[in-house]
Write a structure and sequence with these properties.
It contains 5 helices and 10 strands, in the order H-H-H-H-E-E-E-E-E-E-E-E-E-E-H. With 355 residues, the protein is α+β, with helices and mostly antiparallel strands. It is elongated and about 115 Å long.
């Protein structure tokens, strides 16, 4: 009887355990872009950042190699010009030597030196003349020999510089191909990242913070920084146009999709949202009661309530919401809500950041 009761108690326990196991998500079944920030969304964001940095390095290497090749080519051209000048100088010396020989022949009337000495009224004068011709002939010959050695050195310099230039050109072709390959992969990854962001904005639900390892950079020096490291300013604060119902409320930074976006100063995340005209956006609160907004993002790397430091990555730029192309829309506000913006360029300038 006791054994029967044990079996009756064991059945509900086993059923509960099976229900718990069935409800537990597997690693393969994790929802992309879940609030944990682990999964395809994280991998894609990290891939964009990695390729973004690799593209920057490849571009630097290519530009440095191109400059080195140009310098080496200029050196080869300089050596070639000097060599041409040296050859012209040697040709002139040869002409001088021929002129001396012709003058000597004309002065002697074509007779041997011994005959001239016998027939000469003054052998001493004849010898002095012959000696002068010999000295001139020797000087020209010495000059030709010296310049021939200089010509050989210049020819060697020219050949060496040309060979180095050709090696550099070959390496630059390889660097250009590597650069193009990385940029193609980056463009593909950016497109996929933007597609995920557009889907999140269309659903009106952010997928949670994507945690990225921030690389070392000198950009974070100081209490206040620009929201992106490399950029071109586009639409400015207060500008008008058909794109906005009122005047433009922020400063736009033209940057490619996936560019790391940084907190301009220390603060706290008070808003992370998807949907609406700003697409994916973040709002930070700073000391002194000011707020900053970062809009049209492709991903966020912070959650609401987090504290951030100057220059910390808080997201990646994109073109979500009402956007005509990849850029970061940045605002400085006196409240967290739209409609309280102040000129962000002046606001940053007052804090030592010149755009």
């Amino acid at each position: 009887m006791r054994s029967y009761r044990r079996h009756r108690l064991l059945v509900p326990v086993l059923l509960c355990a099976l229900a718990v196991l069935a409800a537990r998500p597997t690693a393969a079944g994790k929802d992309p872009g879940s609030d944990t920030g682990i999964g395809p969304a994280t991998g894609l964001s990290a891939e964009v950042v990695r390729l973004y940095e690799e593209a920057a390095v490849a571009t630097q290497q290519y530009e440095a190699g191109r400059k080195e090749a140009e310098d080496q080519r200029a050196e080869a051209q300089r050596a070639e010009a000097l060599l041409d000048a040296q050859r012209r100088h040697i040709a002139a010396l040869h002409e001088d030597l021929g002129r001396i020989a012709r003058a000597q022949y004309r002065g002697s009337g074509g007779l041997p030196v011994a005959a001239h000495m016998i027939l000469a009224d003054s052998p001493e004068g004849l010898m002095r003349g012959q000696h002068a011709f010999s000295q001139a002939d020797l000087a020209v010959n010495n000059a030709i020999s010296k310049n021939k050695r200089a010509e050989a050195r210049l020819a060697a310099d020219e050949a060496r510089a040309a060979a180095q230039w050709q090696v550099l050109e070959k390496r630059n072709v390889q660097l250009a191909a590597l650069k193009a390959d990385i940029e193609q992969k980056l463009e593909t990854a950016r497109s996929e990242l933007q597609g995920q962001a557009d889907a999140a904005v269309a659903a009106g639900a952010c997928s949670g913070a994507v945690r990225l390892d921030q690389s070392e950079t000198g950009f974070t020096d100081g209490d206040w920084v620009a929201p992106v490291e490399t950029y071109e300013l586009s639409a400015s604060y207060g500008s008008g146009g058909a794109r906005w119902s009122n005047r433009h409320t922020g400063q736009d930074f033209a940057v490619p999709i996936g560019t790391p976006v940084r907190a301009v100063g220390a603060g706290r995340v008070v808003k992370v949202s998807c949907g609406g005209p700003f697409g994916m956006e973040i709002v930070l609160k700073h000391a002194g009661g000011y707020y900053t907004q970062y809009a049209h993002l492709a991903s966020t790397t912070v959650d609401q309530g987090e504290r951030v430091s100057p220059g910390q990555w808080i997201g990646q730029s994109g073109t979500t919401g009402n956007s005509t192309g990849p850029h970061l829309h940045f605002e400085a506000r006196v409240t967290s809500e739209s409609g309280s913006a102040v000129n962000p360029v002046s606001w940053l300038s007052a804090r030592g950041v010149s755009l």
